[in-house]
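Notes for week 9. Today we move from apo structures to complexes. The key idea is that a small molecule is not decoration. When we ask for a structure prediction with flavin-adenine dinucleotide present, the ligand SMILES becomes part of the input, just like the chain. The input block below holds both the sequence and the ligand string. Read it once before you look at the output, and try to guess where the molecule might sit.
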Amino acid sequence: MKDLVIIGSGPAGLSAAVYAKRAKLDVAVIEKAPFSGGQIINTEQVDNYLGMYRTSGFEMATAFRAHADALEVEFLNKEVVGIEGNQTFAVKLSNGDVIETKTVLIATGAKYKNLGIDSESKFKGAGVSYCATCDGAFFRKKTVVVVGGGNVAFGDAHYLSKICEKVYLVHRRDVYRASKHLIDLVKSHENVEILPFYEVKEIIGDGMVEQVRLIQNQTKEEKIVDASGIFVAIGMEPVSEFVNGIVDTDNRGYIIATENGVTSTPGIFVAGDVRTKEVRQIVTAVSDGANAVASVQEYLQ
Ligand SMILES: Cc1cc2nc3c(=O)[nH]c(=O)nc-3n(C[C@H](O)[C@H](O)[C@H](O)COP(=O)(O)OP(=O)(O)OC[C@H]3O[C@@H](n4cnc5c(N)ncnc54)[C@H](O)[C@@H]3O)c2cc1C
């Protein structure tokens, strides 16, 4: 019987592991991917984490994992497929094994929704980005395409208009979910061209993004724009399918929690991008990990 099982070893899970080990809890971390680090593994450069200026996501993930390894945290490279129980919990793994634990910390993150076209995965990290504030600076004085019609897409277009020479904002409809204020702001930028009723058909380039093939979804007319980058801002989704009713989630699947990671189920805690929160970044995930372990300690006592 473990004191704590942490599911996921991204920034939130690794931070929690360090805090749990230092609190002398009997803790195990379960990670389905071959490497720890979560989303940051694929981030070419991280510029906004205090004290680690211009580090690659991979370097950062390696440093985070090394810290946990130095404290001899127990890791299992397995996928969690379910959690059962109430006062104590059985964490079920994809190979059929079960780990018994007094508490569970879910730190399984969130993933950006993909466009779902073949060429998208080919150019990930080579011009295809899901985070304008993270990667916008790489496209200084260049042309980029932003895809989406919500606050994130319009926020990205506004942010990128100050860095890039030209921004195309592509949306499949002519109705936008973004706030009116943001829409008006973006429309006021001369270097932003809004293309309603367009969808991305193909991303073209030799190693790096060079062009984006669009299709007007009513007339079926195709249009190719020269662009060095494409920012996909069509939303994010949490990795929470496996919780299957054991904790409350909002209508998008994010696990409802307090700032201290306390969920609707006593003994189950949550940290990082998978919980309800405003800012999903490395620094907030790392903070969540520490806060959630404080809640775990309080609960165990
Ligand atoms: C392309 C990109 C660039 C970014 N750039 C920046 C940046 O520059 N600065 C910044 O602050 N933030 C950036 N972010 C956001 C940042 O990466 C996230 O906020 C952060 O990684 C969240 O950490 P997390 O631990 O909550 O989740 P994640 O990083 O998503 O980690 C979750 C972990 O859980 C594991 N997992 C999931 N399900 C299971 C399961 N069932 N069983 C076992 N393991 C499981 C996953 O494999 C993963 O390792 C970026 C994100 C992306 C996608």
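The chain has a mean pLDDT of 95.
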